[in-house]
Design brief:
This protein has twelve helices and 13 strands. By secondary structure, the protein is α/β, with parallel strands linked by helices. The protein binds nicotinamide-adenine-dinucleotide.
Length: 326
């Protein structure tokens, strides 16, 4: 019989349910049951997913049949839930952002170290086809050493951030933590260690009460420069990444579209997600998590990556808070 990791789901909202559906397609995972702080959601998810409902968090964490948990709850709950799960001896797949401060991320990492359990933070953007392929080309040396990266992600997300925990900066961390932690992680993946040089954000609408559009400038340890522009108030919306290297440029769009490169010597290639043909990203990351726990295989991204992305978001926010007025 194939080895399988027995996983309990904590949080049965949008992404929790989606991850659970994807987990059902992973032969290395068996879902043991679901718990949500809202009992009605626990019940409806249990029915939909055809798995048992845990009446309480303790019931899930005390179930010795559970080896790992998926934590798919709002960011402000991440630290406490992770610490409890790790203390109960469970490995953790945690949705991004890892937590709302570097201090909280460190507390999770320390708990993982103490209990010798693995923590993976869901930086799934890396496994979306165009992002994944760009990194494959970069690593293969197609454009040589990266020199300059620009990431622009804007859209109209005012409705998404208008209600519930996302509207409250103390619960979501605002746009930078809740959404753009993905882009910050991607930038690190492309360039290695980066430092924020300058960041500026604006909050033109009264609600939500956090930065709604921002720009930041970075430098990398290897001497590359980078910029991110991101926002939630742009009805036209764009997702565009450009990586200029010593020998050429890679450019791609976001979740659909193409990734392409062209070199100084005139070589070029364009690919679509269908041509790249990688697995469904959320299913892929769950499979890699399970294999990491079961067989000690490397995780594609882990708690340290989660922490570093939060550290960059925190650093950007600090720069914005100390801005000079004209
Ligand atoms: N990787 C991605 O692409 C992606 C996409 C969406 C959301 N997320 C992340 O997933 C997390 C959840 O987002 P969502 O959109 O599913 O939110 P959601 O509001 O749809 O669901 C969250 C659920 O958690 C439950 N909950 C809250 N506190 C809890 C607790 N202490 N114990 C158990 N359950 C609790 C709520 O009742 C709710 O059902 C966030 O951190 C978000 O950033 C990631």
């Amino acid at each position: 019989m194939e080895a399988t990791l027995r996983v309990g789901l904590i949080g049965a909202g949008g992404i929790g349910r989606y991850l659970a559906y994807q987990a059902k397609g992973v032969s290395e995972i068996t879902l043991t049951g679901v718990y949500d702080a809202n009992p009605e959601l626990t019940q409806s998810a249990a029915q939909e997913l055809e798995i048992p409902a845990y009446p309480t968090l303790s019931a899930l964490l005390e179930d010795e049949g559970v080896q790992a948990v998926i934590v798919a709850t709002p960011p402000y709950t991440h630290r406490e839930l992770c610490e409890q799960a790790l203390q109960a001896g469970k490995h953790v797949f945690l949705e991004k952002p890892m937590a709302l401060s570097v201090a909280d991320c460190d507390a999770i990492l320390q708990a993982a170290e103490r209990t010798q359990r693995r923590v993976m933070v869901g930086h799934v953007l890396r496994l979306f086809p165009l992002f994944y392929q760009a990194k494959q080309w970069l690593d293969a040396g197609v454009i040589g050493k990266p020199l300059a990266v620009a990431i622009r992600r804007t859209g109209n997300e005012r409705e998404l951030f208008a209600k519930g925990w996302r509207a409250d900066v103390r619960q979501s961390g605002g746009l930078l933590m809740e959404m753009n932690v993905h882009e910050l992680d991607y930038l690190r993946w492309l360039l290695g260690t980066v430092r924020v040089v300058a960041a500026q954000g604006i909050q033109p609408f009264a609600e939500p009460s956090f930065i709604q559009h921002w720009h930041a400038l970075f430098v990398s340890e290897t001497g590359a420069v980078a910029q991110i522009e991101a926002g939630m108030i742009d009805p036209l919306g764009t997702y565009r990444v450009s990586i200029i290297g010593e020998q050429g440029t890679i450019e791609h769009t976001g979740f659909g579209g193409t990734v392409r490169y062209k070199t100084h010597s005139g070589e070029e290639q364009t690919m679509t997600p269908e041509e790249i043909n990688t697995p469904e990203p959320y299913q892929w990351e769950l499979r890699l998590f399970a294999r990491g726990v079961l067989f000690g295989e490397p995780l594609p991204y882990d708690g340290t990556d989660g922490r570093e992305a939060v550290a960059l978001a925190e650093a950007c926010l600090q720069k914005m808070n100390t801005r000079q007025e004209f």
